[in-house]
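Chapter review. Work through the record for Prephenate dehydrogenase before attempting the end-of-chapter questions.
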Amino acid sequence: MRTALVIGTGLIGTSAALALAGRGVAVHLRDHDPARARTAAALGAGTDEAPEGPVDLVLVAVPPAHVAATLAEAITAGLGRGYLDVASVKGGPKRELEALGLDLTAYLGTHPMSGKERSGPLAATADLFEGRPWVLTPTRDTDTEVLNLALELVALCRAVPVVMDADAHDRAVALVSHTPQLVSSMVAARLEEADETAVRLCGQGIRDVTRIAASDPRMWVEILSANPGPVADVLSGVAADLDETVRALRALQSADEDKRRDGASGVEDVLRRGNAGRSRVPGKHGAAPTVYETVAVLISDQPGELARIFADAGRAGVNIEDVRIEHATGQQAGLVQLMVEPSAAPLLGKALQDRGWSLRTT
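Structure tokens for Prephenate dehydrogenase:
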């Protein structure tokens, strides 16, 4: 791949353009808002000047509702040898293109499973896709050259290719991406009118659950409008669990011992099923989930403290597998939770204590 045209210079389009440009591909940028294309170009993602002729790859990074029309225009104009899109839904755009009667041998639908709460070119980074799954949905009609271009794009962005059927992809993202967004927003919405004293009690748990609730509502309306059926199916199952859990909690208020026992059993059931589902989420580098030991250390909110604690862990010969920081409300301190292999936890704890760190139980 020597040349590419990226249509749509939001977070995903600009990030892909930055990755391609950084690896020697001549990237041309186009957006319905020329100012966004100029911004992406100023960031080093390519040039906002039109290509002189057909490019090797046309990458369409526009909202799902506009994917089919944008691709149809590009294909009809012969802008490239291969055409990909990066929309978060795949079945709908594919069917829209088929209904237009276009030759789709040069088209392949894709979806990088990566993003941020922020949007727009200024949020873009060249490493956004590194190590992340990038779904490819080829059909029997997809030209081999186009599939190779898609695989090259994924490799240049240092992502991991995953081949799926388009409709299977849409059902999957309804479960692992679209429904979590809505549930996160619903929980966060409970905070809008909450008493200030309750909000001040927010800890890491509520921060984890509501992190993605900060996402752009307009963007998510477009995404959910393109995949409403599968999302509604998943939410229907969640709603059934909610109804059962509400009944179980009400039973716990009963004066009848048998009802309280049934209520406790119902709550435990949903919690255990949650444990089982969480255990299936892939762990580090996509491997099977690993249970790590947590070493919690009190840390002050001062420059260089995180670097110092990581350096001390390195001197002890311990690899930090994951890290979380829980901030103390109203204080210039917090807990840094270092996740390590269980066998390494005692060694790390002693080494950090020897270097003056204060450990806490979690």
